[in-house]
Amino acid sequence: MRPLSLVAPLALSVILAGCASEPVMQDGIRVNDPFERQNRRVHAFNKAFDERVVAPVARLASPGDGASDSPGAMDLVINAGSNLSLPGKVVNSVMQGRPEPAIKNFFRFAVNTTLGIGGLFDPAGRDFGLPEQDTDFGETLAVWGVPEGVYLELPILGPSTQRDAVGKVVDLAIDPLNHVLHRDGAWAAFGLRVASKAGDRARFGETVDSVLQGSADSYAQLRLIYLMHRRHELNEEGTEIDPYAETADDAIDPYAE
């Protein structure tokens, strides 16, 4: 099956579903959440899963604290997982008609895969001024004019929208590594990318805990943070937040891809 043959029907379903309900306002942010009851059930599961599984594993595998120039073991895993995501980002940038980030991510992947020993190290960013240009198929759909649809909380994956949920599926389908690696290699690459998320969870542990465990209504708080952050990334609705802020309320999406 051709991955791109899935795009049109999936995008159409997002458009139709996105028009099915009236949004409400939360702290000045438009929220379209007709499935709130079901989403809250999923959120309760995700919160318990994070508390009992993800957080303990992340603490055990905590990355280096930055006090040394030598990266810790989890830092290497994070680097490798991030490097493996770059070919898919190149494809998305091309589909968005944005050659500059596509070229930068291509050369970043080439440099880190070779000089960085399979992406364990980051000479592209450190020595060549090639930071990662983040994107995904959810952003590609946004560039193509597909609305975000309703808010969803996905099991394990966390906050999303219909558009971004479609994007996660298509990102797996169009990832070039899935088509050039044999099955075991593809699964190993996927496992590294999943493991790198544990490192991200450890890096932002206090922030994530403050949202999930310290909020009076962690579901509403996480929903607000995700929508603000995502719309800021996509330049939608002119949300004025700092994506590099250190506080949970301003920036962090604990389940971001």
UniProtKB/TrEMBL annotation:
Keyword Transcription listed: no
Pfam families reported for this sequence: MlaA
Keyword Kinase: no
Annotated signal sequence range: 1-20
InterPro entries: MlaA
Sorted UniProt keywords: Signal
Superkingdom of origin: Bacteria
Family: Belongs to the MlaA family.
Record-given protein name: VacJ family lipoprotein
